[in-house]
Amino acid sequence: MAFGWKTQFEKRVPSDGLSNWEIFSIAQQACKELDWEYLIVDERTFTATTPTHWTLSEQIIKIIVDSDEIIFESQSESLELYEAGRNKKNIEDLLLPAFKKARRRVSYQELQVAANALKAETLAQIRSGNRVASEKMTFGVREHEMTFMLIAVKLVIFAVMVLKGVDYVNPAVKDIIGWGGSVKLNVTGGEWWRLITAPFVHIGILPLLLNMFGLYWIGLMVEPILGNFKFLIAYLCTAVIAGLVSLLWLPEGVTAGASGAVFGMYGVLIAFATTRYINKKFPTVWLICILAYAVLNIFLGMEGANDNATNIGGLVAGIFVGYLFYFFHFKRNLARAGGSRISIEILLITAMLVFFYLKQNGKDDTLRFEKEIMQLNQIELKAMTQMQQLQSKTNEEAAKVLRDSALPQWKHFQKEIMKTDAFRLDDEFKQKRKLLSRYAQLRVRQTELIYKSINEETDKYNAEIDEVSNKIDTIINKLGT
């Protein structure tokens, strides 16, 4: 049991005269029974991994043949706060019993055949550098659980949007923003989470179907290489980076849709395809499908119906992420086993990019300012309604309304606009704030003068009232342009 560091457990047992490949073939059967993922790494070491769970670190299982001993080792793939004896349990309670059971089930002749076949297959992979040549390409859910889950989530979100009244062909911009689309003012104004939600929101049924088509085909190829967890990390991180590129390239637009993340998966595939790690003999129909998807998206981007900045950003991010996975994990002979450490590091790199983008652009309070303006409009409406009703009242009633209702409303308006002085705004909104502040000041003065005129029953304030009213009209005209 340990806290806050990499933990491991090792146990040595006699080899009982078994050869390396006989031991590995038995270990292979034991891992199948335990539903552990396994891979022969070299002629002396067998590597496997325990099933991934989001609450637990993965454990890397190694079986090493050392002279007349077999070393069974379980090691946490990343740092753990609380290990709880899982590594010891993996060996003593799970692997060793399964290993002994598998050994008893096979005859000497069967063991020889299995060992020779495993040796031939493994040595061929080692010579070619191709670690996943033996993996079968499938079209179903198995081996592609994360791809199907992402598709399902996006379809459900779109269905809910339509049920809530969003146009399924050409949704309004306000609806896309309301459901999580990414806009620079929102993102820099504190709603950074839109970089994550935007890839799950689609601008109509056609982009949705196109993106789901692309995700399905690229998922068939990339998810079996990375595994479920690393595929999800790569997908989310490339989606966020693609969104950042879009905000830099098109700061005035609204970003939504999964094309950036899908192109990110293309980038991951390109990165691995430039290594000797994967089987490059993909079925021709698969390559045609993903090529058609890429060409169609780029064409739509040129026509203005798509965001090529997102696509390009996702592609470059995917290549970068793919190489990180390869050089810092896969090349170290772990294959799909483990990978939580490099996955966390990729998440941290993505978070740092978001942080530096927000810091570089400063905290833009434009969104907060616009929300404040909406509240000021409500205050203004109440005050104006009260003042417009003065003519139907007696002087005493009118004076009371001005003193007790209208004037406090305008002073409240003035106080609220003063609160925005600390907001970080661009020059356009700074000018708007300045005009509103002056407007509030003039409204307070106008109301005070009208109150004095009615309360004192005099016309001596009329000229000043007219002067203030003209200034108010000038400001209203400037705000309206």
Beta strand count:
7
Order of helices and strands: EHEEEEHHHHEHHHHEHHHHHHHH
Q: Which oligomeric form is depicted? A: single chain
Q: Give the class-level CATH name of the largest domain.
A: Mainly Alpha
What class would the helix/strand composition place it in? alpha+beta
Shape: elongated
The overall pLDDT, averaged over residues, is: 83
Give the SSE map.
Layout: E1 8-14, H1 20-34, E2 37-40, E3 45-49, E4 59-66, E5 69-76, H2 86-105, H3 108-128, H4 145-163, H5 173-178, E6 182-183, H6 184-188, H7 194-197, H8 205-226, H9 228-249, E7 254-255, H10 259-273, H11 284-302, H12 308-328, H13 340-361, H14 366-388, H15 395-418, H16 427-456, H17 462-480
Antiparallel strand pairs: 1-5, 2-3, 3-4, 4-5, 6-7
Helix pairs in contact: 1-2, 1-3, 4-8, 8-9, 8-10, 8-11, 9-10, 9-12, 9-13, 10-12, 14-15, 15-16, 16-17
